[in-house]
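dumping the sequnces here before i forget
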Amino acid sequence: MKHNIRLTGTGGQGLILAGIILAEAALLEGKNAIQSQSYGPEARGGASKAEVIIADEAIHFPKVQESDYLLAMSEKAYEKYSAGMKDGSVLIIDTTFVEERPNAKAKTTYAIPITKLAIDATGRELTANICALGVMSALGLVGEEALKKAILNRIPKGTEELNMKAFEAGKNAAEA
Amino acid sequence: MSDIRLMQGNEACALGAIHAGVRFYAGYPITPSTEIAEIMAEELPKYGGKFIQMEDEIAGMAAIIGASLTGKKTLTATSGPGFSLKQENIGYAAMAEVPCVVVNVQRGGPSTGLPTSPAQSEIMQSKYGSHGDRGAIVLTPSTVPECFRLAVRSVNLAEKYMTPVILLMDEIVGHMREAIDLEEERKAEVYDRKKPDCGPEDYVAYAPDENGAPVLAPFGAGYRYHVTGLTHDETGFSTMVPEKVERVNRRLVDKIENNKEDIVMWEETCTDDAESVIVAYGGAARAAREAVELLRAEGKKVGLFRPISVWPFPDKALTALAAKVRSVFVTEMNDGQLAGEVKKVIGGKVPVDGLFVMDGEIMTPQEIADGWKGANQ
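..and the predicted 3d for all of it:
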């Protein structure tokens, strides 16, 4: 078992944090995980990519080559990273920013207005990354409990309720 | 008990340095090493240590030398452009024999290059970047736990051999996160700097111990001695007497070269039955490790030789391996810097080929496997 996950979008959307949380959740379940990232020199607005590999076996090469799961939270990110999807893989697009369209490599596509859902649930756009993790909780990569625990480990104190609302909104949308 | 965390290499490096007893950090933050400064700024005060952000990298290097002379274990961290700026003072620390650790988290160069992308192009600079002859200790980690371990070892070796030690990381290991068992890593042994075993009146600062290193008393402890970047005799005062000049220059090389058995580190994977060996280190060794698996799956008897100390280079170990294999293949994220040393060690006994990348991205296992196949038809 080896899952290659790519979380992509724009700098400032919190995708690197989402990647860290996903990897930490996998560790909490006793699996191996590696998280890496690439970003430009900008603090906000540049392309942002976080990668997570979750496996039962040891992971040496730290980068995702072809994704089993691609989350695209910007049109540019979709255009850039959909080419790196594995045939028969899973695609998650945030339809707030990404236009829905057919994708021949996707076995399953989750077209969900992630950022809009997050704003509706919490009034805060910056919870979109946690909402995206809610969507991903429906994919069975890591258990919901571990994910929630990992989220609570990494978010600022006092924002627990807010982030859990965003998480539930994403999860419910994915399971609908 | 275990305490497993998801951690960046930079964070593991900082925590390792603190475990080793580093209590003073001075530097100027630069991507991709900045997290080390951030963590030291936050953590050092909890241990009674001090953190200073200096006006530039040159001053950061000077400050850790000064602090080290008071007996503190000291650290600075930087990347390419900052590493270039530090060279003059690294030479000063080597000449004045002041222990300190310089972390260089390598990014793309030359100049400001690629601030957020990896490279391994300071292999030669880490040994020869400062003028003059000297022995150099340069360690390079491949995993997050190894960042912790080698930070501890860098401090230990600096204190034991009274020399600046370079911990040569790269953006790959610096920024990636993986599991580390802190409980386990914190069992690592720590070496403390020797203190003079005589009174101030009999003290000769630069008289070498059995390792060839001086025993420098902490400034302020009542021992008076002179510290200079000029070539000096055992009192620390400058000299131009040829025998004395030769003696100190020879000692600066020999205290490392004669203790290679104690210093060199390497790792071999699948080399027992190997007919060819891939040489890789740091972040790139992670790709090479999977390349070995790909080639083994095709029935090719390939092993991996990973230098952990790039300087001193593990020449004996590679020579022994070269006697058993038919070819050597080096892969690194530069134009073949360590491959030059590998060729020197192999001395033409077997062919040495390589895959050298300078595009700001780690080579893939498949690219290494294909490169190896191209060279071993």
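Residues 16 and 148 of chain B are 4 Å apart (CA to CA).
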